[in-house]
Design brief:
seven-stranded mixed β-sheet; globular; 7 strands; disordered C terminus; Rossmann fold; alpha/beta; 245 residues
Length: 245
């Protein structure tokens, strides 16, 4: 299925707060009560609609253990949105939010949208963190906030979709500058078109060498965040071929 934009998300927070369960509920519409601890990162994706436009969410679920913190930090780069998750029944997971937020602000795009999620709202009878405390933390730090339940699916859809809506608004307001990505991918498409028309071959360039190098360059640029703001507009190769003059 085609889509207009691709948004990269990262899910962060302490071990056992339900990050993987939130992802599974959102992508597969199911709850898995017993879930192995995430080792490094896990990945999920789903299509949604924002302002009548198809958007693909690429979601990275990270490990909460301190031993994997350095790996998690490498996934902040290029993320347009983050779900910062705590468990409303475990006070310590709420107390650690400031540390997670500091990491995110240090290693991620300054314009990243962060949704604070108080998970396990179905266990409100065991609540250790009040709704008002979560709301106040979000207000103080400029975050969006809602409580959710990966088990009952309450507010799970809303958490992911509302984050996407905030990202999309930033695009419309010009907060995310996609011009560098448009220029980069236009140049990539131009080279591919030249190769397709044999112009590169006639100029004695070796396609068997050039193509892998080109694709490797694209992958490296996306991976290190050089041209990737976490928002990828999927229409670059439809742009007109630029003149070589």
């Amino acid at each position: 299925m085609s889509y207009a934009y691709l948004f990269k998300y990262i899910i962060i927070g302490d071990t056992g707060v339900g990050k993987s369960c939130l992802l599974l509920q959102f992508t597969d519409k199911r709850f898995q009560p017993v879930h192995d601890l995430t080792i490094g990162v896990e990945f999920g994706a789903r299509m949604i609609t924002v302002d009548s436009r198809p958007v693909k969410l690429q979601i990275w679920d990270t490990a909460g253990q301190e031993s994997f913190r350095s790996i998690t930090r490498s996934y902040y780069r290029g993320a347009a949105g983050a779900l910062l998750v705590y468990d409303i029944t475990r006070r310590e997971t709420f107390n650690h939010l400031a540390s997670w937020l500091e990491d995110a602000r240090q290693h991620a795009n300054a314009n990243m949208t962060i949704m604070l999620v108080g998970n396990k709202s179905d266990l409100s009878h065991r609540r250790a963190v009040s709704y008002e405390e979560g709301e106040q933390f979000a207000k103080e730090h400029g975050l969006i906030f809602m409580e959710a339940s990966a088990k009952t699916a309450q507010n799970v859809e809303e958490a992911f979709v509302k984050t996407a809506g905030a990202i999309y608004k930033k695009i419309q307001d010009g907060v995310f500058d996609l011009s560098n990505e448009v220029k980069f991918f236009r140049n990539v498409c131009n080279v591919l078109r030249l190769m397709e028309s044999n112009l590169v071959t006639r100029s004695r360039a070796n396609p068997e060498v050039l193509v892998p190098r080109l694709l490797k360059g694209v992958a490296a640029a996306v991976a290190n965040g050089t041209i990737y703001s976490g928002v990828y507009r999927v229409s670059h190769c439809h742009l007109p071929l630029e003149s070589s003059s």
